[in-house]
Amino acid sequence: MSNSVKIEKIKIDLKNGNNLVDINFNIDTSTAIIGESGSGKSLTLKALLDLLPKELDKVVNISSNFNLKKDQVGIIPQNPFTSLSPMTKIKDQFFCKKEKKKEILNKVGLNSWVLNRFPTQLSGGQLQRVIIAITLSKDLKLLLLDEPTTALDEINKNNITKLIKNLVNELNILILYVTHDIESIIDVCENIIIIKKGKIIEEGKTKDILNNPKNDYTKILIESNFKNRKFRE
Length: 233
Ligand SMILES: Nc1ncnc2c1ncn2[C@@H]1O[C@H](COP(=O)(O)OP(=O)(O)OP(=O)(O)O)[C@@H](O)[C@H]1O
Description:
By secondary structure, this protein is an alpha/beta fold. The chain is 31% helix and 25% strand. The chain has helices spanning 41-49, 98-107, 124-136, 154-170, 206-211, 216-232; strands at residues 5-13, 19-27, 30-34, 57-64, 73-76, 142-146, 174-179, 191-196, 199-205.
């Protein structure tokens, strides 16, 4: 049986009882969570990483059909500029031996010259590649992606989207990709979940939902995503 993670319940409330997130879903292969700003994407990821702030009430119930250790969960964050330790050379932020560092850097389109640099000496696109390489240097079973291209300019955004597509197709691990940008998850995620105000609006196979959205909110999200793209071209 292939690996699967069951998010049986993530319920997050403010102390005054107002609900922020109330969802359940499975990750069987690769799943995208799509939602506008404030829809609960980051809180969902924080719940999975056990990083929710103390001031929130939470019920987090997750199970898996395999032994998933904490250090087998990796995250590619939104902002590459604040994700690495600024005073430590790149080579000392990896979790593997020198040869493997070089091999993984090649995979993300970088060479070993970056190893002797500090994070501040790299561009946003280069930094995000380094972070992807560092994350992949661990023995991962579940990879979380938190809007990994949002902080990048258009060229880097396209390049990193392509890189993620290639890597994810090559890797045999579970993927949860949260973003507001539907285009970036086409060809990456098999399944898609649309959320609004912390609740699931619609879910299914990515192809089915994009070709035949049932919910009006989903239709608007898809339309606005592709309208934006045409506008930028
Ligand atoms: N610590 C907190 N205390 C109170 N409210 C919070 C807290 N963290 C998040 N929220 C609220 O919960 C809702 C969901 O926030 P979340 O950060 O998960 O949204 P998001 O979908 O990731 O948005 P974005 O795309 O802008 O990052 C928002 O209304 C936010 O204001």
